[in-house]
Structures are given as C-alpha cells and as structure tokens.
Amino acid sequence: MLDVQDLSKNYGETRALEGVSIGFEKGTIHAVLGENGSGKSTLVKLLSGIVMPSRGRILVEGRPLTAFTPAAMQAAGLATVFQEVLLAPDRTVTDNILLGCDGLLKRNIPRGRRRDVAAEALSRITATPIDLDAAAGDLPLAIRQLIVLARALARRPRLLILDEITAALDFGDREAVFRTMEKFAADGGLILFISHRMDEVMRLAARISVLRNGRLVETLARRDTSPDALLRLMAPAAAKELAHAG
Ligand SMILES: Nc1ncnc2c1ncn2[C@@H]1O[C@H](COP(=O)(O)OP(=O)(O)OP(=O)(O)O)[C@@H](O)[C@H]1O
C-alpha cells in the first residue's frame, strides 16, 4: 500500500535519513522504533509532505508521488497526527475537528450536521464527554490530543500516521485509541505507529521497522522478535551495558 524506496533526507551535513526502504502493507499496524535522533520524525515529516526528500521515492498503491506537499499527501489518502498538538486554540472543538477537511467534504457537511460529524468522530476514540462548543485551547492536553486524532479520522484516510500520540492520554482513552487503531487496520487501513513504548509496540504492531542513525536496521514481524532483541537492534551499546548490569 505504501512503499518508501531509498528515502534520504540531508540537513546540510546531517544525514537525518539515509537510504531507507520499507514496504508497508494495508490492514497492518506497522511500528517504527528508534532512539532519539534515529530519524523517526524525519520519516514522518517526509510522509506528511512537510519536508522534501533529498533522494528516493514514496509510492502509494504502487504509484510514485510526484508532489511532496501536505495537500498532495492528503490527496493520496495519508493523514498524520503529530506529537505536538496543533490546533486553533480560539476555535471550537467542532471547528477544529472539521478544520482542514478538504473543501469538498466541508461543502458536503450542512451547518446543522457539523456538530454531529464532530461528535461521531470523537465517539470513535473516547467515552470522555467533551463540550463541542468549548474553545479547544482551554481544554487539557489529553483532550486536545483526542481532538487532533478525531480530525485525522474525520478525513477518512486510508493511511494514518500516529507520531507518539499516547503520552498525554490516561489509561481509558489510551485503550479506546488502541481499539480504534485495531479496527482501522482490520477494516483494511494502514497505521504507521511511532512510539517509544515497547509495551505498546509489542501489543499493537504486526510489523516493526527499527531505525538507527538515520538508517533502517531491519523490518521484522512481531511474532519473530522480542523486546530484548529490538533493544539490541535500536541501541547495541546500551543493550550490552544493560545485560552486564543485570
Ligand atoms: N531541521 C533540521 N535541521 C538539522 N538537523 C535536523 C533537523 N531535523 C532533524 N535533524 C537531525 O536529524 C537527525 C534525525 O532527527 P529526527 O528528529 O528525525 O530523529 P527522531 O528519531 O525523530 O528523534 P526524536 O525521538 O527525538 O524525535 C538528528 O540528528 C537531528 O538532529
């Protein structure tokens, strides 16, 4: 469904991503693991059209993308939820969920239906009651995180990129978000899941790609690996130290 081939990004002398090739399959939760600075955010930014690749290709359903802009990525069916919660603080929860939906979708939602569409998107990811008319900026971080996830889902993407989104969530909301992720994949979508948390990765991901120093170390099936083995792939030196300390 999504392939990156020889994908590279340089910032001056820094090789943030170097020759990374990964095939992502539909109906899968695919995790990308790596230490700070390993290139995870750079991969997400490339797939979101925020930065241009220095080299390499991105293919969706076998077709190489020719434009690298957020609009082009959205048109190809990708939606990203970023680590930093980006929303319009003075606008209502409803406005924020429908904000950025493409023009077509906006025109298709009559005024009176806007709140229903927003409520439906939120109900898919949380049982927490959220005031749809509140200014988004006045709400706690966890709620704001759910709003940006609801916004991504309202666009009905085929491919959802989740970049470290669970940190702010409490247990109940996190479980609700996991169930939504599993359903999204079961319905044939692809989730690219960026997380530091090994427990989340081992629980959710069917496939795992490990990055180190901007390079792909390996892509493997979860059933063929273990947290210890993944740690060794992510950071061989640290894993050795841990083993000695133990
Ligand atoms: N805009 C930039 N200008 C210069 N160097 C950058 C820029 N963005 C990232 N880098 C460098 O590229 C490398 C990869 O960074 P990246 O943010 O992709 O890693 P990461 O795995 O996402 O880390 P983190 O978990 O801290 O977000 C790092 O060495 C980083 O310092």
TrEMBL record:
InterPro entries: AAA+_ATPase, ABC_carbohydrate_import_ATPase, ABC_transporter-like_ATP-bd, P-loop_NTPase. PROSITE patterns: ABC_TRANSPORTER_2 (PS50893). Signal peptide: none annotated. Residues 2-238 form the ABC transporter domain. GO terms for molecular function: ATP binding. Keywords: ATP-binding, Nucleotide-binding, Repeat, Sugar transport, Transport. CDD domains: ABC_Carb_Monos_I. It comes from the Bacteria. PANTHER family: CARBOHYDRATE TRANSPORT ATP-BINDING PROTEIN MG119-RELATED (PTHR43790), GALACTOFURANOSE TRANSPORTER ATP-BINDING PROTEIN YTFR (PTHR43790:SF9). This is Ribose transport system ATP-binding protein. It comes from Labrys monachus.
